[in-house]
Amino acid sequence: MRDLTLAMRRRTDVLTTLFFFIIVVSLFPLGAGTEKMILMKIAPGVAWVAALLASMLALERLFASDFADGTLEQMLLTPQPIFILVLGKVFAHWLLTGLPLVFIAPLVGLQYYLPDEAVSTMMLALLIGTPILSLVGAIGAALTLGLRGGGILLSLLILPLYIPIMVYGAGVVSASATGTTDLQAYFSILSGFLILALVLSPIATAAALRISVE
Amino acid sequence: MSINWFKYSSPTTFYPLAGKMIPFFGWLTALLTIGGLYWGFFETPDTLSDQKEYYRIIYIHVGAAWMSMWLYIMMAAWALAGLVFQTRLSYMIASAIAPTGAIATFLALWTGAFWGKTSWGTWWDWDPRMTSELILLFLYMGYMALQSAIDDPRRADRAAALLALVGLVCVPIIFWSINCPNPNECAALHQTSKPGGGNMDPNILIAMLVVALAFWMYSFVAVLMRVRNIILERERHTTWVNEMLEDKQ
Prior knowledge:
The complex is a heterodimer of chains A (about 210) and B (about 250).
Chain A: H1 2-9, H2 11-32, H3 36-59, H4 61-68, H5 71-77, H6 82-111, H7 116-143, H8 150-177, H9 184-213
Helix pairs in contact in A: 2-3, 2-6, 3-6, 3-7, 3-8, 6-7, 6-9, 7-8, 7-9, 8-9
Chain B: H1 11-42, H2 58-85, H3 88-119, H4 128-149, H5 153-179, H6 202-234, H7 239-248
Helix pairs in contact in B: 1-6, 2-3, 2-5, 2-6, 3-4, 3-5, 3-6, 4-5
């Protein structure tokens, strides 16, 4: 809750992430040409890569300010298990960076001439996928806490781990854009990843926080 | 009889032990390399199915690719040992394995590119195995980058160890997702091709395995030497290192 309040007081941070996503997505047609067929083909990949980058940009701030003013240390000293704290922070992070992307996805659909079903598929895929990005990214954010060049290091550590989510997240949108109806398997796999990340990531993040803060 | 399992887990006792093991593995490496390459160049047919002499790059390529994967597993295993037992030496071994693993990965990609250029006519193809190997290289790079970005060695060791473990959990998922981007089309997870396509001349297989063993032994040598360096670097303030260095002078 506190994170949300703080974020509301600095609304630009949220908007920055959102506009970063929009700008990245808008740059591709300018670079790759505006042919309808090409755009339709690259749309899922572009949207997901932009989502990865946008989520990563905000990750740096996940624990950083609390770490800087000592709040994080106090939180680690409380009797509550750390993974609850981690879950809370990750959830706040997702509400501020992941969820807006879900609602902005139709804009990508417009820009890239995607059919309506593909747009709704993309929204659902982003809805399942972006929490995984926040969860996995939290491990990296905790590991690189307070390091010089933390941001660039964070992307080096975390981007390879994002690959499976991108493969299936973009795969399901492509499949739906080409008229495949059997999308269940994709969503099952993505949900499976979400559950796995939900169980394992807070534990790893908590361990990483302990390592970084002591 | 009680065995002290942790006798060699202290850098002080491991340093001389590593020194004794290096020549042993060094000779093994030399013998296996010479033997394997001799066998590979002179006792094997000149062609492998439709490929001419250039197929011989297989002796380097396969060994390097195997080592790159095996070393990642070993690195993560030592990282886990370090996190569980809190032994400094385990972290040192894990961080000593990383550069050798990265080199093996790079070598596999590099020789693969040459092989691909001659046999497929392209340096690179987004084939699942190649992509997996590339991502393995990224993981090694991430591990080493994190380790070197943290100044405090204790924190560096533990953070990198945790990263190696997270990587180990994710690796199968990543590889699987690359192998099978469309979940509707892969019911079974088995690889369709065996190394060499199954109908390989036994002499080629022997040479390949011997050189792969040589790679393994080389990894022992390189890792042990690097561990000795790391030990010296980190323990340079201790009395035993100073005494040893004075003896040498």
